[in-house]
Amino acid sequence: MSNRLISSTFAVLTLAACGPDAGMLVDAQDVDTDDAIATTESELTTSSRVGLWFPMNEGNSWAFESTTGTSRTLRLSSVANGMAELHGLTSAATWIGVSSSSGNTLMQWDAASGAWRSWLRFGFASTSWTLGTEPCTGARLRRSATGTTVSTKAGAFTDTRTISVEQLPSKTALCAPPAFSELTFAAGVGLVAFRTGRGERFTLASATVAGKRVPAASGAVTATLTLDQGSYLNKPNTIRCITTPCPSNEVTAVAKATFTVSNGSATSQSWSFRTGCQFDLELVAASGLVVKRVSDDRVCTQALTSVTLAPGQSRTWTADVALADRDGLQLDGSFTARARLIPSTSAGSAPIASRPLSVRVQQ
Predict the structure, then answer these.
(1) What are phi and psi of 41, to 5 degrees?
(2) What CA–CA distances, in Å, run from 90 to 120, 322, 323, 329, 354?
(3) What is the Cα 344 distance to its own chain's centre?
(4) Global pTM?
(5) In Å, how far are 81, 87, 327 from 195, measured between CA atoms?
(6) 298-321: per-residue pLDDT in tens?
(7) Which of 311, 335, 315 is nearest to 323 (CA)?
(8) In this structure, are residues 276 and 295 in contact, taking their beta carbons and an 8 Å threshold?
(9) How much of the chain is helix, strand and coil, in % rounded to 5?
């Protein structure tokens, strides 16, 4: 009974032999008949992107502890094409994904129907939605808290969103408790707390997200990435010609990026490079596809270089990134800018930083 409930209520289904369909994920949309959706469109912004609230990187893991001393670990594996396999939240692993059509909703693969369906919404602050309609196996979810402070062993998180799960009751039977009744996410970290259907509360003890440890190791080398804006506007060419050469009034937006590495350790840190180019920045679509790298069009001096940071010292690199893909087509949608050092040695000690951005093509 319990295993059936867990898998049915949240579509936590073991991967079928054929596996999830990545092609279907691209066009999957968050569809719900709840009229409240129409009043919350303003929240469907970059700040509600799945990648911000549930980072999907190979090797991401989250370790939790409860007040009773119980431990639980969540981890991601097989991350590719906007999909990942999530282990540890329930008794069976489940496939999750991000659709370019609904970047604010974490999708889940339903092996029974052979389709992707909406699971967790990080937009729509005031609405609720259902997962299944049958008593005991169905549930209604809603955003129950926003911006509350959650204190954990891994630190205090102030920018949080909590999704509560209410099991649909049965008039004739006593339902077994669901796998979880509440999930709390922190921006840039992922799940930081959850409560089981039996009332046991787990909070984050430590995590590894996009190669970074949470909490950061004492005296660690850290990195930050900033952009001059959070949203950009591309203006397409509106001139139509019947002869060549044809002029163009196309204006492609340029993001100004600043990447800073700081040495918080007690010893000097050094990196060596084969060329004069010491860092790179890439633009990643919601599907996980890298659509552009600064290094694609950059000419580097052919000279060995190095960087040494004394304790407490920082170094900053900047780049102007035209918001078009490798074929010159203007970008449109939500993306992540990701920057890193590119040393020839000690690559493992080179930190990575990321920042979300949105780009819109003017109509």
Answers:
(1) -60, -30
(2) 15, 43, 40, 42, 29
(3) 28
(4) 0.58
(5) 30, 17, 47
(6) 888 888 999 999 888 889 999 999
(7) 335
(8) no
(9) 10, 45, 45
Domains and CATH numbers, the chain: 2-214 (no CATH), 221-361 (2.60.40.2360)
Q: How many CB atoms lie within 10 A of CB 225?
A: 19
pLDDT digits 0-9 by tens, 74-115: 999 999 989 999 999 988 899 999 988 888 899 999 888 888
pLDDT at 204: 95
Question: Given a cut of 70, is residue 4 above it in pLDDT?
Answer: no
Q: What is the pLDDT of residue 347?
A: 57
Higher pLDDT: 211 or 279? It is: 279
* Both structure tokens of 172: 């004739």
3-state secondary structure 2-68: HHHHHHHHCCCCCCCCCCCCHHHHHHCCCCCCCHHHHHCHHHCCHHHCHHHHCCCCCCCEEEEEECC
Contact 176, 2 (CB under 8 A): yes
Handedness of CA 123, 126, 130, 135 (dihedral sign): positive
Pairing of strands 160-167, 139-146: antiparallel
- Does residue 67 have a pLDDT over 70? yes
Q: What is the mean pLDDT of the chain?
A: 85
pLDDT 10s digits, 248-264: 899 999 999 999 998 88
Query: Is 268 exposed, middle or buried (CB count within 10 Å of its CB: 0-12, 13-18, 19+)?
Result: exposed
- Name the nearest CA neighbour of 62 among 154, 183, 199: 154
Q: Is the pLDDT of residue 14 over 60?
A: no
Diameter of the chain measured on Cα atoms: 77
Q: Is 273 helix (H, G, I), strand (E, B) or coil?
A: strand
Question: Is residue 297 helix, strand or coil?
Answer: helix
CA nearest neighbour of 72 among 167, 217, 209, 207: 207
How far is it, in rounded angstroms, from Cα 183 to Cα 185?
A: 7
